Amino acid sequence: MENLVLYSYFRSSASYRVRAALNLKKLPYSTKAVNLKTAEHLLPDFNKISSFSELPVLSHNGNEIAQSVAIINYLEDTFPETYNLFPKLSYDKAIVLQMCEVVNSGIHPLQNLSVGKKLKSEHSFSVEEAIAWNVFWINKGFTNFEKLLANFHGDFCFGNEITAADLFLVPQVYNAKRYKVDMTQFPIISKIEKNCLNNVDIKNASPGFQEDTPEELKEHL
């Protein structure tokens, strides 16, 4: 019997990616909520689980894996009979990984909670200036992503099947909308996000449907 436990926060986009992967693969798991806003990830108990003090962390039969790219690759290798998030051909897989990294390395780190705190505490950014920082980097990254998608997309990022690339893109669009990014600039991204959210497994992984989602932010299918 598999024992999968995901340490997650409802608005953590990296956790969102892993929730969607687990759902698509139909792997039953339990969730342990770790509140980033109240800094639960910095407490000693969580530090024993993750020396990074970051989310998400997946525990599988007592072994912990951190970082969403590593977790999704682990799920792919460990449960090969489930839904495949990467194409089989090496070139195609490389393109999907490239798409993942546009978000994972090029956009997401620059608008992390820890970056926002540093901008405010050490560089005297106002809330408005911090939001403008996030919008700048999202716009820059999405502009590049839109160009890449033009060569490979179908209904989803890579052709007409959901891949890991979609699981990285959709949470980033969620954040973009929170920061009021003008998504009309990115018609391909917007189309793909809409298609993805029509999939119940991705929809159920979104922030509005988690156990730790505040009542005022909860959504209903």
Characterization of this structure:
This protein is α+β, with helices and mostly antiparallel strands and 221 residues long. The chain folds into two domains: 4-84, 3-Layer(aba) Sandwich (Glutaredoxin); 90-203, Glutathione S-transferase Yfyf (Class Pi), Chain A, domain 2. The chain has helices at residues 13-24, 44-49, 68-78, 90-104, 113-123, 127-152, 164-178, 187-197, 200-205, and strands spanning 4-8, 30-33, 57-60, 63-66. It has a four-stranded mixed beta sheet, with helices on one face. The longest helix is centred in the middle third of the chain and has 26 residues, at 127-152.
CATH class of the largest domain reads Mainly Alpha
Total strand segments: 4
Using the CA coordinates, give the radius of gyration.
17 Å
Low-confidence stretches: none
Number of domains: 2
CATH architecture of the largest domain: Up-down Bundle
Helix content: 40-55%
Overall outline: globular
Our estimate of the beta-strand percent is 5-15%
The DSSP helix count reads 9
Strand order of the largest sheet: 2-1-3-4
- Give the oligomeric state of the chains in this entry, treating copies of one chain as homo and distinct chains as hetero: single chain
Derived structural class:
alpha+beta
Examine the coordinates and then state which fold CATH places here, giving the name of the CATH topology of the largest domain. Answer: Glutathione S-transferase Yfyf (Class Pi), Chain A, domain 2
- Largest sheet report: 4 strands, mixed
